[in-house]
Amino acid sequence: MEKLSIGKMAKLNQTSIQALRLYDRMGILRPAEVNEETGYRYYDVKQSAALDMIHYMQSTGMTLKEIKNVFEKKDLAVLNKALHQHLKDVDRQILELTQQKKAVRRMMDSYDRYLKSPADGTITMEYIGERKIYSRRTAVNFYVHGIEAYESILKDLKKEMVGQGVSQYYYYNAGTTIARADFVEGKCVSDKIFVFVDQECGSGHLQTLSADMYACIYCDDFDKEQEYIVKLRGVIEEQELHVTGDYICEVLTELPFPDSGKREMFLRLQVPVRFKEKLENKAI
Q: What is the 3 state secondary structure string of 178-215?
């Protein structure tokens, strides 16, 4: 047997001396020989097979304690059980990382929209594609009770989402609605609070916002919303547009600056509309 020093054994197997010493202490891989006088450890090159197995098992996520248990039991059933558990752990980690990646991209997209959006008070006509939302009815009309009530219904929404198994990664940039009839009549009565979700959201409590043309106004302060709703309604009346659906307050982004003591939000207030000419042509 060619004796290999611990250093040579480590180099040959692309591992560290510290790792070999740890394996020795744990009883996972003992040296083939230990000099009683010097304490030097010597290995047999054939022990590289055991090292390869240790490294491969570690690459699956198995701990050294689990690897030692497999080596001691010499039972493939023990190894198979450990591998099945680690497969479940890997799948869970993949799901968590996928959700984390989506959350990062969602936040990046949010700030990108903010940087490229029109200035506060700008009124636009925009085509907005189909969107999916997870929503719940609001318990109180926060337009009457203020930001404290808004925060309360946000927490109710989050609690319900958790209860329904909806990922908290969707809990970002919430929106609210006013029923079409109330909006047309000039009433600010909060109807629903919602978050946008994607097609992969597994909840059965989803609604679809149809693709449509929207009259929009951009707003940089929660406290300005009711004033801007009046402006938006005025433009719709002036241009003789027909409101076809509920009013939506979409939070385009929340700025990470809590100095004001409240949420710093940039909003896109929007209402689906039809042009009068289009309605007349459709009726003919």
A: ECHHHHHCCCCCEEEEEEEECCCCCCCCEEEECCEEEE
CB atoms within 10 A of CB 241: 20
Helix, strand or coil, per DSSP, at residue 167: coil
DSSP class of residue 240 equals T
* In contact, 266 and 175? CB cutoff 8 Å: no
Query: Which parts of the chain fold into alpha helices (H)?
Result: 6-12, 17-26, 48-59, 64-73, 76-116, 142-145, 147-163, 180-184, 225-238, 276-283
Question: What is the share, in percent, of the chain residues with pLDDT greater than 90?
Answer: 56
Give the predicted TM-score (pTM) of the model: 0.72
Residue 74: how many other CB atoms lie within 10 Å = 8
φ/ψ of 94, rounded to 5, equals: -60, -45
pLDDT of residue 279: 54
97 contact partners, CB below 8 Å, separation of at least 6: none
Q: Report the distance separating Cα 229 and Cα 82, nearest Å.
A: 60
The reported pLDDT for the residue numbered 2 is: 76
- Residue 213 token pair: 């043309």
CA distance 199 to 205: 12
Q: Could you tell me which residues come within 8 angstroms of residue 21 by beta carbon, excluding any fewer than 6 positions away?
A: 6, 41
Instruction: Give the gyration radius of the chain's Cα atoms.
Output: 31
Q: How many CB atoms lie within 10 A of CB 281?
A: 9
